[in-house]
Amino acid sequence: MPKIVNQKYSSDGEIQAFCEDLLLSVSQMKARNFSAKVVATPIIATRKKTGLTQEKFAEMLGVSKKTLSAWEQGVRKPSGAARTLLKIADKHPKIIKEVASL
After folding, report:
1. 16/32 same-domain check
2. What is the dihedral of CA 82, 62, 67, 84, to 10 degrees?
3. Which intervals hold domain HTH cro/C1-type (predicted)?
4. Is 3 buried (19+), middle (13-18) or exposed (0-12) by CB count in 10 A?
């Protein structure tokens, strides 16, 4: 694996490790030797119960698709009101689908 040298960051081990991981990922993709780990989070499962797309589900919740995606990936957590709506959506997906189609 070639070593990335950047004068500004060459002493930062974390950036060096990131660059090496990135190069490894690219070489694995080129070799088609990679595995994608898809984790179904509870938010994804709830959305799928409703049968709505990310766009429609996000619109129904009053958030952007980007925010919903961050929740689904576990990058961010929904606020109190959104958590409540998600609980309702999980228990009553048909009602949520009806509301989204209004």
Report:
1. yes
2. 10
3. 43-99
4. exposed
